[in-house]
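User: Assemble these into one structure.

Assistant: Restating your components, then the assembled model:
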Amino acid sequence: MPAGVLIYAEQRDGRSAPIVAELLGIGRTLANALGEPLVAMVFGNGVSNEIKQDLVARGVVRVVAVDHPLLEHYQVEPYVDALERVVRQVDPAIVLLGQTFQCRDLAPRLAFRLGTGLCMDCVELSIEPQTRLLVEIKPVFGGNARAEFVCEEPRPQMATIRAKAFEAAVPDAGRSGSIESLTVDLDPSKVRARVIEHTVATTTGGLKLEDARIVVSGGRGMGSEENFQPVEALASVFGGAVAASRGAVDAGYQPTERQVGLSGKVVTPDLYVAIAISGASQHMAGCTGSKCIVALNRDADAAIFKFAQFGVVGTWQQFLPAFTEKVRELLKD
Amino acid sequence: MHTIVCIKQVPDPETPSASFRIDTATNKVIPAQGIAPVVDPYGENAVEAALQVKDKLGGTVTAISMGDKAAREALKHVMSMGVDEGILLDDPAFQDGDSYATARTLAAAIQKTADDPKFGPFDLVLCGRQSSDTDMGQVGPGLAELLGIPSTTIALKIEVSDGTARVERIAEDGRDVIDLTLPGLVTISNEVGSPRYPTLRGIMAAAKKEVTTWGAADLGLSPSDVGRNGSRQRLRRLFIPVRDSKCEMIEADTIPEAAVKLALRLREAKII
């Protein structure tokens, strides 16, 4: 009888990915609603005790760890094989993963291998009391609508969660849980999708977009890469990060790493300043989690004003210099 | 070199939000007046990637689409871009399928093309990284799993030589380079390049070509394998979320003045 909520604790550079704490947050809520255990699976080649203890501290009652040389760095085939083994061993009712670049690669193959249903990029998850089914809600049509799915018979019910959509679980050193190792046989000769190189993008000023408390974002309306200078200047005054809409990235004004939106990054800063961004749903999907959105657009009917808390109608040329100066002055106090 | 591209016809994602409507009785989008459906954007990037491979290595490109008769237009469009053959998977039984049922149907079609002298065995399957309606991104890797071939996703760049596709993909903190042993599947992101415009010659050539049409029986699939019955997930509800935020518009005689006023307002609201 499948039971429990199993979390994939994705590892990167010897640390749990930030989304793991969020998985544990919603995982605990779902496990409590079912009255079933919260379990986590972690993979690598010598996963540290700190990582396993941290999972327990955040509410996991059972950690299943798989170590193997082939799992040292993420490659889809050994990872799907290893995850499949653990899922069959644990036999959970629900498997949750993060909507990360790794899981976009891995989760569908795992779901199809298991012959089960997968709902990706969920922003709401709950247990329906009468049926005990996992109710999965995700944005569709670029964020214009929401879709509600259930997976009635196949098990486990699988879902990936959108970053920053759920509260992170807080560690409590007083918690306890079991930690076990599972040995999995993996055959290197079966690997047909080989990672031959992994490069880390250099972030300007060392500030990661996803971690910035203030983000200043420019749209296609900026018109050129040079025109992003005032956007950079404002971000610099705020001590924040620069982002861009897909339109600006496609036009070559900014690199892909700065793209915010449905197919870019999801950010939840305290302040998101949208300059010359129309407010298309696909872009808003990446920033509606912001505490406060401020928008500048020369079109009074731009969709962005339906999402922003404060707005000014005008051109960036007339707005940015004056705004930046005043902010600089105010922050000096 | 034979490349297969899976495409889909979807409501135009550029449709303004204000015109977006749902029929809650059927859980379907009501097509906006006067806005024609399009080939899903990332799918079009996948077609572009396939044509770039053909430009370099020669060979053929076959596009497959599961949909109704209207999807023929999508296939004709990509054929006029330079795709050699188009296959339409059209059967009422295919309707209302989830990613699993869709991938199952596409897999059966791809297996059928391998044995059909008109198409021949494939080396590479390309899909868009996610379609603009469901925004799921499952069918690509799921299809590879069903076909038993290796896959990678969200490719920025793809180069084929000697039975291997070298793919650059977006990873969390940067980029990965993957060597994929063919036959394999890759899902494509927009960075591979903008889809080329159909040429007049391409349009005329596509007009003369037949789109091959297959139903469930042609693929050896029974109704329980496909569509709603073959699905693992069930769509229960499609709805438009209520947005209740009100925007405070800051006004002044000039825009620089409004900018100053805004900064002061944000300070007042303790936001800066």
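The helical segments of chain A are 19-34, 49-57, 76-90, 101-114, 229-238, 246-250, 281-284, 316-332.
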